[in-house]
Amino acid sequence: MFKYGQDIGIDLGTATVIAYVKGKGIVLREPSVVAVDNNTGEVLAVGKEARRMLGRTPGNIVATRPLRDGVISSYTVTEKMLKYFINRVCGKFIFAPRIMICIPSKVTEVEKKAVIDAASQAGARKVYLIEEPIAAAIGAGIDISRPCGNMVVDIGGGTTDIAVISLGGSVVSSSLKVAGDKFDEAIVKYIKKKYNVIIGERTAEDLKINIGCVYPKIQDMEMDIRGRDLATGLPKTITVHSSEMLEALTEPAMMVIDAVHSVLEKTPPELAADISDRGIYMTGGGSLIDGLDKLLQEKTGINVMIAQDAISCVALGTGKALDNLDVLDAKKRR
After folding, report:
1. Model pTM score
2. Cβ atoms 89, 100 nearer than 8 A
3. Which domains are present in the chain?
């Protein structure tokens, strides 16, 4: 079945790729992991299937995440991954699709070009870029075209993007390479230091999702995990409590809060007054860590709200921004 080129919005995340097709909504949500055969360079698996292979592959197969800290770390693998996802979303098309991709707010021109080139090589007719905090604000249902300040904190897998948005653009913004992945790393380090047991990325992520917190819980939760004992080299099962997770995650959480603080310090007084009235919006998967909203509210004294569908906010915002592609094209032609 041939289709005409569609308009696609892609949240090209360090941890997850989410695709939005105009008129259909979110059609794809897959981990951004690719398994490649080193001998032939052939892509063996992409997405969920490749994620299951992380840390479990033989020598000739490498399961990697081609995006690190919000930017492309392996160009060819990213291109192959995009091609796979675009084909899955579009099927066979006569005209290549127009694609809008999210990027962190403080990326360099070289990093922008890498994203545009990878999407073009993967089959896009035209590539547009949108800043993550702006897409997140649109996805959270904020009217960004009005002359009043809105603050968005988007915590993804690789980067935390903080921006004060007014009149459709960001007035003050900051991008921090502390997000979901750094929280996982903090858990791995903590377990190694306290129990002398080494655990993998996926186990750390399970701990973060199930019992992780950055604000004291009323009831202490626990979870059994398995890892490798560094003293004996044998597998070992340990029980971890949420109070220990609090200890492990406080440092990266405070880095995020300090970054929010410094953006607020640079915000013009009129917009700061708006933010004080309207509150801070949190989006992205990282914002779902238990107690992060309470901690931010306590440290800033400003009301903090987590967006309704926090994980999909950026993709939804990109999807809504697709409606303005014709306007963007007309402006370019003029």
Report:
1. 0.88
2. no
3. 2-134+314-333 (3.30.420.40), 144-178+251-309 (3.30.420.40), 180-248 (3.90.640.10)
